[in-house]
Design goal:
Distance between the termini: 48 Å
Strand content: 15-25%
Radius of gyration: 19 Å
CATH topology of the largest domain: 2-enoyl-CoA Hydratase, Chain A, domain 1
CATH architecture of the largest domain: Alpha-Beta Complex
Strand order of the largest sheet: 1-2-3-5-7-10
CATH class of the largest domain: Alpha Beta
Number of strands: 10
Number of domains: 2
Helix content: 40-55%
Largest sheet: 6 strands, mixed
CATH superfamily of the largest domain: 2-enoyl-CoA Hydratase, Chain A, domain 1
């Protein structure tokens, strides 16, 4: 169900599915087969009712993902090939953006170039204390390519996005936390208390509630109209309100108050 080259998948207790880009020797470069496999695995995970969230990370400690595979991309030299490359990669990242489950990036190491775009395609980012995020595409005399530029502007604002991209800044964990690029700084690795503490409340949510929340945040990312967003909110309310989990939770609170 989760088979893909250079990608490993681990189902952990509580409904967290960890997806690892497993190319440490290549700095976890996002070759075309990796992007295609990532989209396939994310889509397969979303179809599993027991999965509450996805945590995406990279192998090793140096890189979360170092962007596209430059050897592979060296053959992309005309308009049609460039558009095809961009569309395929953006489609893979859209599978992350549009996944009906919350997708968290654990930045075990640096997320640079296309790797930074992948990190921002996720809903939340947990950044290792030593990791950095950098939109450094300008070093190759190009701009962002896979939808990451609009994501960056949305998250940090146009002025900071201009600053990051034009100066090729590598933003450390504390600065990322202040700017809203990171949601937490992880000091003790992927199996430590920091990630556990961040994930625990999320994993305590009912799966349909997490999907309902993601439906609303995805609508906001897509720029849905105010009325459309309110309709989505109401649809998710109906689904969760009428679910047995809601009534069990409400009855539990009421029974404790009656004691």
């Amino acid at each position: 169900m989760y088979a893909a080259k250079d990608i490993t998948v681990e189902e952990r207790a509580g409904g967290a599915l960890w997806i690892t880009i497993d190319r440490a020797q290549k700095h976890n470069a996002l070759a075309r087969h990796v992007l295609a496999g990532l989209a396939q695995v994310v889509s397969a995970a979303a179809a599993q009712p027991g999965v509450r969230c996805i945590v995406l990370t990279g192998a090793g400690q140096r890189f979360f993902a170092a962007g596209g595979d430059l050897v592979e991309l060296s053959g992309v030299r005309d308009r049609e090939a460039t558009l095809a490359m961009s569309e395929q990669a953006r489609g893979a990242l859209d599978a992350v953006r549009d996944c009906p489950l919350p997708v968290l990036a654990y930045l075990n190491g640096d997320a640079i170039g296309g790797g930074a775009e992948l990190a921002l395609a996720c809903d939340m980012r947990l950044q290792s204390a030593s990791a950095r995020i950098g939109f450094i595409q300008a070093r190759l005399a190009i701009t962002s390519a896979w939808g990451g530029g609009p994501d960056l502007c949305r998250i940090v604002g146009a002025a900071r996005a201009m600053r990051m991209m034009s100066r090729c800044e590598l933003v450390d964990a504390q600065q990322a936390l202040q700017w809203g690029l990171a949601d937490a700084v992880v000091t003790d690795g992927p199996a430590g208390k920091d990630i556990h503490a961040f994930l625990q409340p999320l994993l305590g949510c009912a799966p349909q509630v997490l999907r309902g929340i993601k439906a609303q945040t995805a609508a906001s990312r897509r720029g849905e109209s105010h009325d459309a967003a309110r309709t989505i909110e109401q649809q998710q309310l109906l689904h969760t309100w009428l679910h047995a989990d809601h009534w069990n939770a409400a009855e539990g609170i009421l029974s404790r108050r009656a004691q």
